Amino acid sequence: MDKLRRHCERRLRHMALPDPFDLGELCQAVSARRGRPLHVRRIPGPPARTRPCGIWIATDDDDWIFVDQDTSPLHRQHIVLHELAHMICGHDAAALPENDLIGRLFPDLSPAMVRTVLSRASYQSEQEREAELLASLILTKPQRAAAVMPVLDMSEAEARILRRAGLALGMDP
Amino acid sequence: MTLSTIAVTVLWIAVLTQFPSQRRAPIRRAVWLTMLLLAAIGTLDLTAIGARLDTAAGLPNAADLTQHVLGIVAATLARYCAVAIFGTEQQRARWSAARTTAVAAFTVICLTGLFAISPARTQPTDIALYADFPMQYAAHPEVLAYWAIFAVYLGTTFVIIARLAWRYGRTAGRSPLGGGLRLLAAGMVAGLTYLGYGTAVVAAHAAGIQGPFIRTAPGIIQALFGALIVLVAAGGVLPATQHWPVARQIGLYRSLRTLYPLWAGLYQAVPGIALDPVPGWTDRIDPRDLRMRLYRRVIEIRDGYLALNPVDVPGIEATVRAAAGRRPLSAADAAMVAAATRLELARRAELRGEARAGSGDPRAYREFVAGADLDSEVRLLRVVATNWPTISRAAETIERSSS
């Protein structure tokens, strides 16, 4: 794991990440680099124990990231980053081992259109561990770690006011 | 060292520790300048310093007058801060620097003019008996008017800030920012008490009333002013402490340890959640890489919850409230603890190999959503961890009743 971590940190040093971090901007940058539209959508259907919480499907023309919505915004952000990390690392699942899963979740999607499928379900493969570690490192970099607003049960206007109060009282923006 | 000296020292420490970050934004500069003025007022309130200023100026009560003028300036800055932080777009657009400055300047001119025509300009105050010159010369109408103007200007500011800081302190919840805002609100209440008590003393002097109420007044007024200063200093510094390296590391370590049992329970049921599992003793003694480890802990707990298959349990809220016993839960915490109990039941079923196939009860997840940042996630999961005995008791009760 230490070797993989050093490898991911080296990769991270050469990445131009939005600062302050913005997931939408990173999605646009990855999309531009790959020269293909990138879409982020929710995984259809109710939560189920056999369902992965994130999936990346690459068709001939587009990239699609599907995320489980039944979790927190931070977790959702991490799941999207995990799938983006696969793209950044150039991972490829040409053998499409998860075709069965895709058939169940997206019955209308023709298998002939799909080039790559990767789902975030376990860390058994080196590719999964690398994507997971890179996603974690991106979100724990000190300069991206200061979005410290507690947003339990509050409106956007209240959150804005508390951001200003935090800034006024010495917290980082 | 007297109480006042300790209070002023605390405030100066707060002002100096905030200095490195005060240049970044106008609002931060304004808050810092307000605290600096408060520290200067507190310093002038110290007997030795105040007496030296009076002697240097050749004017009895110059220190008191300076304190009051600085108080008006600090209150004006504090009002600007309140509008800039808590005001709506329209309120911030309507706020006029020229009008506010004009009102403050007029108030200062009135105070200075009334002081100039009062006996306090030529006669010193007996500091053994009186905290401030308005208390000694309250029988003179110009001094009474002086105190009334001063108390109304400051009192209005204290009420505005106390109301806003308390409201948003509650909204921010159990966080350093929430705690800081609530301390500021408490400081404003101490300030209002100081003004109210001071006004009562001035009125009593004006009416010629004597007695224990008057004799103990200087000490009480000093204590209230000290409380105002200490609470404002603590409230002004608390939110920033989470960026102090040592405080931050201690906070991260405590959160990491608090969440360990929650993570370990889920890891036992769903081993696949761990990217790099560590035994409990390593987790306890290793002080390195705390932020990354805490982030992973939160993500893995969330992964564990998503991998479970919670089911709906009718009446679970009542069971949770009964399990909480003498520690009543707030409405928000009760919903969260009920959701965590659903998930705990699913975890136990998973451990017994009895996990149900199919879809889970979405409420177990939706009641359980925190903010978009690590701090609010940690805060939410710490509520679950600290209510673990309740969750465990509720889960056992439900399991017993269904078996």
Distance between the termini of chain A: 33 Å
**Care to count the β-strands of chain A?**
4
Q: List low-confidence stretches of chain B.
A: none
Please count the helical segments of chain A: 6
What is the oligomer described by this structure?
heterodimer
pLDDT averaged residue by residue of chain A: 78
Strand composition percent of chain B: under 5%
Residues in helices of chain B, as a percent range: over 70%
Profile the largest sheet of chain B: none
User: What's the N-to-C terminus distance of chain B?
Assistant: 67 Å
Radius of gyration of chain B, in Å, reads: 28 Å
Description:
The complex is a heterodimer of chains A (173) and B (403). Chain A is built from six helices and four strands; from the N terminus they run ααβββααβαα. Chain A is of the alpha+beta class and 173 residues long. Chain A has a four-stranded mixed sheet with strand order 1-3-2-4, with helices on one face. In chain A, β2 and β3 form a beta hairpin. In chain A, α1 crosses α5 and α3 packs across α5. The longest helix of chain A has 17 residues. The two termini of chain A are 33 Å apart. With 403 residues, chain B is an all-alpha fold. Chain B is built from 19 helices and no strands. In chain B, α1 packs parallel to α11 and α8 runs antiparallel to α9.
